[in-house]
């Protein structure tokens, strides 16, 4: 049985993963620890084979005042946890696996195609703090201490936060939506959960870029959301000239209508994609 510790209580991804592996009660034992008050330092890490570190700050407006908080939580805390887990690895001389949840945000772009050769260049405190943590955690890797770093694109699913929620509200309330050609890499929470499950089974180190098999077109997602809510969404190309201009200069428009994808060959054989696009929208909107 794999003994897993999720560091980050009440996180969307951590909670979802814990529920996901309940399908295999004889294969996985999962505990969760809150990282907010420092009580995690009392945890006996020797009881676990895998630590899945999901604690972090996201989905809040960045300001000069909270810059240090991003680094304290997204980087310093993550590194401290990894170091504590490695101490146990060295003391017991047994293999342990640390999985760190990073983000596509480390690349610092709103549009474009990300290839294996693309070097990170974050512009936000969120992306910078995640990339800094990646580097410091990777330095801890050894023969017995396996490090896996995940850089997923936008994660969506029932109960998620962030850009999907805003798009869902538009889909349910706007009778007409722009029909604009674009492609986005995304991943449904079930697919991410299954990716992590297979990863901890394999015990593979490295950088990973899980995503849905299908790239998503924003207007198609809006139609699917509307349909899942028994509504009809009509699309039009009349706004496209304005959107093309806005995609060059307006950040929020770039996020909604620009193309941002991982090349397909970066993301493995997609055996973890247990939920197709149409089904994923129905599950998210239920």
From TrEMBL:
Pfam family, one: Epimerase
InterPro entries (alphabetical): Epimerase_deHydtase, Lipid_A_modif_metabolic_enz, NAD(P)-bd_dom_sf
Protein name as annotated: UDP-galactose-4-epimerase
SUPFAM superfamilies noted in UniProt: NAD(P)-binding Rossmann-fold domains
Chain ranges of the NAD-dependent epimerase/dehydratase domain: 4-202
Top-rank taxon: Bacteria
């Amino acid at each position: 049985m794999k003994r897993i510790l999720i560091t980050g209580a009440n996180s969307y991804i951590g909670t979802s993963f814990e529920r996901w592996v309940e399908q295999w009660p004889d294969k996985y034992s999962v505990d969760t620890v809150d990282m907010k008050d420092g009580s995690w330092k009392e945890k006996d890490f020797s009881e676990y084979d895998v630590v899945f570190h999901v604690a972090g700050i996201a989905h809040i407006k960045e300001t000069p005042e909270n810059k240090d908080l991003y680094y304290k939580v997204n980087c310093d805390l993550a590194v401290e946890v990894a170091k504590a887990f490695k101490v146990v690895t060295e003391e017991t001389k047994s293999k342990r696996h640390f999985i760190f949840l990073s983000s596509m945000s480390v690349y610092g772009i709103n549009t474009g195609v990300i290839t294996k050769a693309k070097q990170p260049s974050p512009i936000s405190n969120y992306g910078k703090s995640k990339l800094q943590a990646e580097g410091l955690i990777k330095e801890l890797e050894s023969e017995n201490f396996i490090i896996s770093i995940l850089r997923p694109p936008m994660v969506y699913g029932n109960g998620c936060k962030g850009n999907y929620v805003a798009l869902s509200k538009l889909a349910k309330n706007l009778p007409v939506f722009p029909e604009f050609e674009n492609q986005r890499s995304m991943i449904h929470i079930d697919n991410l959960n299954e990716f992590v499950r297979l990863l901890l089974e394999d015990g593979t180190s490295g950088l990973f870029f899980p995503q849905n098999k299908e790239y998503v077109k924003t207007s198609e997602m809006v139609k699917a959301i509307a349909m899942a809510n028994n509504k009809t969404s009509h699309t039009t190309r009349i706004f496209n000239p304005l959107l093309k201009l806005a995609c060059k200069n307006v950040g929020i428009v770039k996020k909604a209508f620009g193309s941002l994808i991982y090349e397909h060959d970066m993301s493995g054989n997609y055996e973890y994609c247990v939920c197709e696009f149409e089904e994923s929208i129905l599950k998210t909107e239920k």
